[in-house]
Design goal:
Helices cover 66% and strands 4% of the residues. It has 219 residues and is mainly α. It has a two-stranded antiparallel sheet with strand order 1-2. Helix 3 (49-76) packs across helix 10 (189-208) and helix 4 (78-87) crosses helix 10. The two termini are 13 Å apart.
Length: 219
């Protein structure tokens, strides 16, 4: 079994430059959130039944919400993060990709912003109202489940409204098509997450290089 390790430093590494130390901690929080959300998704990615579909969707959406927050953090402090990341070993390609992400030049940039601001944490009336007014099918599946367990139940029409609001199309037209389109979007997320994690970790390491840091292993 791998040994537990710790990277430790003197108190001044946390209190010496309050601005840099605070930024390094915020970057660490972002990395923790991104890594945890990835694990949440992997934990449920093969879950069965309607509840499995529900859990995969929301594990993915929570991950997208954290990506948006990480992008906002990066946007607010990009010059400092870039400089620290360079010290921590970031190459020009990584920094250029980060700049493109902030500039909205990557395919995921606009959908991520819209999803976070309208759907993931707020469930805005107007975007769901659009789904309702454009719904064209003669049949609505309101809920699905397995047995009589609440935890295995999903409000199907609500999930469809959310997916359609993420990737606008004709409401209720083709659930399988929605699933294919969502999967394609899901596949764009890991490279964005990887970029942010790598950049933030390198910036944290850049901060560490100003201090006497060392690695300790648990006995």
């Amino acid at each position: 079994m791998p040994r537990t390790w710790h990277i430790v430093g003197p108190k001044v590494s946390l209190t010496g430059n309050i601005d840099d130390c605070t930024l390094a901690l915020r970057l660490g929080i972002a990395v923790n959130a991104l890594e945890a959300s990835q694990r949440f998704y992997l934990f449920v990615k093969d879950a069965d039944g309607p509840a499995g579909d529900r859990d995969r969707l929301w594990a993915f959406l929570v991950a997208v919400g954290f990506i948006h927050e990480a992008i906002q953090l990066l946007r607010s402090h990009f010059p400092r993060v870039r400089n620290l990341a360079r010290v921590g070993g970031a190459d020009d390609e990584t920094l250029m990709s980060a700049s493109q992400l902030l500039g909205g030049n990557l395919s995921v940039s606009r959908p991520i912003s819209r999803m976070r601001n309208k759907l993931i944490f707020h469930w805005d009336d107007n975007v769901i109202r659009t789904y309702v007014t454009k719904f064209s099918s003669d049949r609505v599946t309101w809920a699905s489940g397995v047995g009589d367990t609440q935890g295995e139940t999903v409000f199907t029409a609500a999930a469809d409204a959310l997916i359609n609001s993420v990737l606008p199309d004709e409401p209720g037209a083709d659930a399988e098509r929605d699933a294919v389109r969502l999967k394609a979007f899901v596949n764009d997320i890991p490279p964005t997450t990887k970029l942010l994690i790598q950049l933030f970790q390198q910036a944290i390491m850049g901060h560490w290089r100003s201090y006497d840091m060392r690695t300790e292993h648990a006995s």
